[in-house]
User: Fold this.
Amino acid sequence: MDPVVITVVVIFLLWVMKCLNVLREYERAVTFRLGRLLAVDKGPGLIFILWPIDTIIRISLRITAWDVPSQDIITRDNVSVKVNAVVYFRVLSAQKAVVELENYRYAVEQLAQTTLRSVLGEVELDDLLSQREKLNARLQTILDEHTEPWGIKVAKVEVKQVDLPQDMQRAIARQAEAERERRAKIINADGEFQASEKLSEAAHILAREPITITLRYLQTLAEIGTEKNTTIVFPIPVELLSALMGKFVPPAAPDAAPGATPK
Assistant:
């Protein structure tokens, strides 16, 4: 066989191998022909390009999770904290992500850091600790609005950890302890108030039916008798003691008449 033919066949096979590319299911190829963007992305599967006239840039359409480094943030109530978060985003339009941005991943990362500092710097520390879901939704909305023209969708933003200074942690602990003591005092006072109301109702019932106090005495004696006690304290009404004293103590003698001679 002619060596020239063999050389041409080998060169043709090598050219065909350079023209054939395999893209995975989650990949798309942005194709430039002589520097101009083709209207349709290629992929997935086996694609054919006219090398070296055509050049491709592979873009992954999978969701990317990026851990935002700890950011030094001063909240609205002048508390210095360190906050880190995680951002989930994906490419919706491979052409916009390539043409509009030099490095779309770097752009999203920098935008996430600045947005995290600006948004969390507008809230107080209590809101930062207690309203995570609301802040996450706000961060996701702001990032999604800015990245939409780039063909990128921010799926979710989560604030992972808030690092507080030691002095602030002790202050929060003291505040929580004082709050618990306040609640305990309120509950105790409320219990005393309810008990006083019940005692007042019981007093009114006893006042209407005096015999009920005797039944209460007998019930108390029955409760004491069930236990192994050698001493029984029996309450006696003050009115009964007064009646007994009136019977056994003689009345006082009347005063003598004026001018009478004592015997």
Observations:
- The mean pLDDT is 81.
- The domain at 64-164 is CATH 3.30.479.30 (Tetrahydropterin Synthase; Chain A).
- The longest strand covers residues 80-91.
- Helices lie at 3-19, 94-99, 104-120, 125-130, 132-147, 166-208, 211-226, 238-248.
